[in-house]
Every structure is written in structure tokens, then in C-alpha cells.
Amino acid sequence: MAIVVSFVSQKGGVGKSTLAGALLAVAAHSMDARLADLDPQQASVVAWERARKRDRVVGPPCEVVPYQSFREALAASGNVDLLIVDTPAHTSRTTNRVRG
């Protein structure tokens, strides 16, 4: 099972996506890591990954995948060492629930 690191805050604009992307860029040098973007309206991290590919940024490839829920992201994380979760600006039942 993957190690899971989640960036969660009630407020938007506090740097969750920036920190999640930075952690992914560093972790991808030494392990199989994926960033789960749980904010379908904003999709900041998905846009960041597309810009990296477009601009041919030097560094390890970074996998960013949009998911509808934490449960979906966790279920798909079986083949990674580290799952980084970027949550939307509000918490919900799915954000607060790790199991079940």
C-alpha cells in the first residue's frame, strides 16, 4: 500500500496545490509517486503537469491524475510508493473519511 500525504484546508489559496506539486517533483526523483487532484473545478495540479510537459521541464516525469474522490484515488494507488492528494478548498465527508 502507498504512503499517503494529503494537503487539506478549509480555505483556498493557502498553497496546497503548490506544496503538493513540489513534493511530487522531489519525490519522483527517488520513488514511484502520483499526485491525485481531487478538485475537478480548479484542476490546478493537472494544469501544472500539462505545462511541465509542454515546456519540456527538465526533471523526472510527474504523474498527476484527476479523481472524483479520495476513495477512488486510494483504490488506484496500488502500484505507487507515494500518493499525494491535493484536496479542494473545502472539506467534506469524503475528505475526512480514510476508510469505509
What does this 3D model show about the protein?
With 100 residues, the protein is α/β, with parallel strands linked by helices. It has one domain: 3-Layer(aba) Sandwich (Rossmann fold). Helices cover 33% and strands 19% of the residues. It is built from 4 helices and 4 strands. It has a 4-stranded parallel sheet. The longest helix has 12 residues, at 16-27.
pLDDT averaged residue by residue = 84
The H/E string reads: EHEHEHEH
Q: What is the helix content?
A: 25-40%
Under the CATH scheme, the architecture is 3-Layer(aba) Sandwich
Number of strands: 4
The largest β sheet comes out as:
4 strands, parallel
- Cα radius of gyration in angstroms: 13 Å
Shape: globular
Q: How many helices?
A: 4
CATH superfamily: P-loop containing nucleotide triphosphate hydrolases
Beginning-to-end CA distance, first to last residue: 16 Å
